[in-house]
Amino acid sequence: MNRHIPRRLFLGGAVSALSLLKTGVASYAAPDGKAGVGNDSGPGGCSDPPSQLAEGKNRGWIDAHVHVWTPDVKRYPIDTRSFSVADMVPPSFTSQQLMAECQPAGVDRVVLIQMSFYNHDNSYMLDVIKKYPGVFSGVGIVDHQANGLIKRIKDLSGAGVRGFRISRRGAATKTWLNDPGMAKLWDFTGRHGLSICPLINPSDFDVIDKLCVKFPETRVVIDHFGRVGITGEIVPAQLDALCKLARHRNVHVKTSAFYALGKKKPPYKDLLPMLRRVVDSFSPQRLMWASDCPYQVQGQHDYQSSIDLIGKHLDTLSKTDRQWILRDTAEKVFFSKVS
Questions:
Q1: Which residues are within 8 A (CB) of 131 and not within 5 positions of it... i.e. 6 or more apart?
Q2: Any bridge partners for residue 93, and if so which?
Q3: Which of 212, 247, 258, 313 is most buried by its number of CB atoms within 10 A?
Q4: pTM score
Q5: Domain extents for the chain?
């Protein structure tokens, strides 16, 4: 795999887009003792998962944020208005490649986040979800200003999508407060048990705060700590603003993308004070771990170091707290039935 991280994908907002639990989180062996999965046989090179996954016996960890894509741009075209094939770095990150990273760490379910290469065409993600029911859930991208928005949301929800990503572009977040389509998106998701998943910067927390006041029943899942620490420094005022959002009972936070925050070096222990702060503010029941693969497995970074920060190094957590962050919160939010 090409282990180069296209910096603009994370900083510029372009990314809008299996060990059963034994004793705590000390062991991360795969359920069948093997690393990876079998030969390609599914959409874009997706292989059959272990039998216990297909049978719904998955009680390992959940990775709450992963992007997948295929080099088969003929079958799954990318949005060439904004991207070229050269932007697909690495050139391929199929569900097979994903599970080869996840499985040795005891992860048996994954929340797929629609990749921005495909814009509003969620086809590849939906095909992966369909092939392996119960193994993958999805966060889609829709055009909130398009006609037929509600029908589109219903169709995606019926296909396994449990959240909808909104992402900042320049000052665009300021318009969210008065945008009729955005209001419709927030209102409908709130009434039907779906989630809004903002990819934002710390400067956008105030906008999210105001939207949460307007739509208190809507579940919000903030990606990557809201990018607190993206500059290399954990700015106290930014962390304060993130934690202020905990006053809204339906706001959740992904403790994720460790490769891109703070010192950006494994084992990421410089992020522990921020982690402890968000645990104290939100509680483990509103936090979920995620890798942000494939970017977490580029260069000096690796998958195990990401999960170990929660599973081993955040030693103030109880066994139950770890289970919430590594599995139960994401299970509740992204693997539950919706109305």
A1: 42, 43, 46
A2: 69
A3: 258
A4: 0.85
A5: 7-334
